[in-house]
């Protein structure tokens, strides 16, 4: 099969070449990949740490060409959206069936490929907040692929959505179009307390956002794009003065179980147009270096999709 292989001697560290076909385990299906979406974390960290010749990639959409030997998962010919720790940047991918969602026939594979990390993370992070109907939810780093899914899903869940972005003037209209009621330049600009926070930035923004929580509120720490420590001032974790029972929850998508139903539901929402995948860059996988460069240099606000012919 063809695949994007790690090769640090070429631009972006990726080379389109041939690799052995994957051999699925009994609980895995073999999928013919049609599109993959890139995530900042995999091009910023996974790509730098992977051995030469490795096939990386977390998100992919395609069609099952060999069903799982143990009888789990969808049948041959089923369009699917898939999540894994590697293998998405290739023509064929072996995928655990509990990390594979069924997609509607005829759905755009590129749009579906944005779902696994960004969409499933957004959905599960909001589940961690608990009921959000009628509550104020702050989303930091709202312009990224995951952030835009969080904004849309929180609005659909009945929350009053406050979106935080480094440039409200540039991104305010698009975030409001996605469902944000308010757009601010940072947590300290939020007027009044919030009931929940989905933090995609970390560092000082996480500390500031935690300070905006009302009593009983929860912050879900999802992203760490600031690459800086979280240092809380003395007294921030005291339980008096309305700060009782506030909590911080760490989050890791691959620690979540039974992701297949979530991926299937999200695929239906994207295919129907109820959720916008917010694709901001799309091209063939021979242009992977361009997409990686745009991601690393923060020129993309949304998702980057590679089509695999």
TrEMBL record:
Signal peptide segment: none
Annotated InterPro entries: ADH-like_N, ER, GroES-like_sf, NAD(P)-bd_dom_sf, Zn-ADH-like_protein
Gene Ontology MF terms: acryloyl-CoA reductase (NADPH) activity
One Pfam family in the UniProt entry: ADH_zinc_N_2
Stored Gene3D superfamilies: Medium-chain alcohol dehydrogenases, catalytic domain (3.90.180.10), NAD(P)-binding Rossmann-like Domain (3.40.50.720)
Domain Enoyl reductase (ER): 9-306
This protein's name: Alcohol dehydrogenase
């Amino acid at each position: 099969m063809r695949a994007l292989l790690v090769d640090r001697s070429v631009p972006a560290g990726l080379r389109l070449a041939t690799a052995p076909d994957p051999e699925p385990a009994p609980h895995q299906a073999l999928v013919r990949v049609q599109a993959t979406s890139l995530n900042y974390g995999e091009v910023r960290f996974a790509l730098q740490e992977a051995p030469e010749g490795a096939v990386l990639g977390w998100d992919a959409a395609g069609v099952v060409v060999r069903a799982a030997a143990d009888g789990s998962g969808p049948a041959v010919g089923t369009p699917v959206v898939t999540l894994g720790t590697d293998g998405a940047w290739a023509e064929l991918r072996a995928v655990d069936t509990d990390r594979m969602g069924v997609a509607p026939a005829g759905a755009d594979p590129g749009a579906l490929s944005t779902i696994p990390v960004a969409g499933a993370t957004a959905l599960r992070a909001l589940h961690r907040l608990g009921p959000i109907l009628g509550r104020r939810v702050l989303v930091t780093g709202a312009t990224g692929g995951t952030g835009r899914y969080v904004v849309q899903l929180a609005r659909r869940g009945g929350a009053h959505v406050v979106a935080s972005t480094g440039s409200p003037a540039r991104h305010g209209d698009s975030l409001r179009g996605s469902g944000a009621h308010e757009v601010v330049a940072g947590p300290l600009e939020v007027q009044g307390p919030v009931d929940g926070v989905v933090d995609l930035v970390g560092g000082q923004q996480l500390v500031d956002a935690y300070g905006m929580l009302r009593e009983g509120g929860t912050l879900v720490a999802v992203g760490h794009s600031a690459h800086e420590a979280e240092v809380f001032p003395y007294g921030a974790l005291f339980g008096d003065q309305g700060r009782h029972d506030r909590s911080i929850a760490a989050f890791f998508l691959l620690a979540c179980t039974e992701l297949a139903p979530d991926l299937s539901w999200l695929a239906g929402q994207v295919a129907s147009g109820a959720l916008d995948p917010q694709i901001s860059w799309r091209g063939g996988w021979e242009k992977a270096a361009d997409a990686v460069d745009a991601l690393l240099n923060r020129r993309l606000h949304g998702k980057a999709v590679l089509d695999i012919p």
